[in-house]
Write a structure and sequence with these properties.
Layout: H1 2-10, E1 24-33, E2 38-44, E3 55-56, E4 59-61, H2 69-81, E5 89-93, E6 97-98, E7 104-113, E8 125-132, H3 133-137, E9 143-149, E10 152-161, E11 164-166, H4 168-181, E12 196-198
Parallel strand pairs: 1-7, 9-12
Antiparallel strand pairs: 1-4, 2-3, 2-8, 5-7, 6-7, 9-10, 10-11
């Protein structure tokens, strides 16, 4: 599985959003280097004014001092979960996404050692947890969120892993990881079977 990820992401040309001058951010999708690879997630602390209680990947806004977006992702991962940049083998980037708050987010996929003891930054997080990558490859979604963004209809999987709900922007990143990295038959534009939850139309660009 990891060799497949390396091969496919090395040659991947991620999509970029042209003509959109929004603040930039980057996140890291950390995958453990072991026979049953695990994908690492965080949960935002309940006291935060935005995104409290939401599951996410480590990451955040680009600082002026960051030489690149991948540097942003690695810096944020170190600050949030204690993952040192030299412990990450960056495999490549996924396509840019726009958050509901008008942030351009670039995801990066990286391999990390399996035995690391990751520690959440208590100011920002209340949990770090892992999910087997094969579980997502088996399409264990609980339902699909149908989200209309301008003239595009998105079918975004929603996953329930133990007490954690993985949905929204993080799930959109997962779709491309599965589609490109693992060559899975999955797409945000492809209507799946199962339960469908419709959401209100969202403007683009976001307000």
């Amino acid at each position: 599985m990891l060799d497949l990820l390396r091969q496919n992401l090395a040659g991947h040309q991620p999509s970029q959003l042209e003509g959109i001058d929004y603040p930039q951010a980057a996140v890291l999708l950390p995958i453990t280097r072991e026979p049953d690879p695990q994908l690492i997630f965080t949960r935002r602390a309940g006291h935060l004014s935005t995104h409290s209680g939401q599951v996410a990947f480590p990451g955040g806004k680009r600082d002026p001092e960051d030489p690149s977006l991948v540097a942003t992702a690695l810096r944020e991962a170190e600050e949030e979960i204690g993952l040192e940049p030299e412990q990450v083998e960056v495999l490549g980037a996924l396509g840019e996404l726009i958050s509901l708050h008008g942030i351009r987010v670039t995801p990066y996929v990286g391999l990390i050692p399996a035995s690391l003891e990751l520690v959440p930054c208590e100011d920002e997080l209340d949990a770090i947890f892992s999910v087997p990558l094969r579980w997502f490859a088996e399409d264990q979604r609980s339902h699909t969120d149908q989200i209309q963004v301008a003239d595009r209809c998105l079918y975004v999987p929603s996953y329930q892993w133990q007490e954690y709900r993985i949905w929204g922007l993080s799930a959109m990143m997962l779709v491309e990881l599965l589609q490109v990295g693992l060559q899975q038959d999955i797409s945000l534009d492809q209507k799946p079977g199962g339960d469908l939850v419709r959401h209100p139309v969202r403007p683009f660009p976001p307000r």
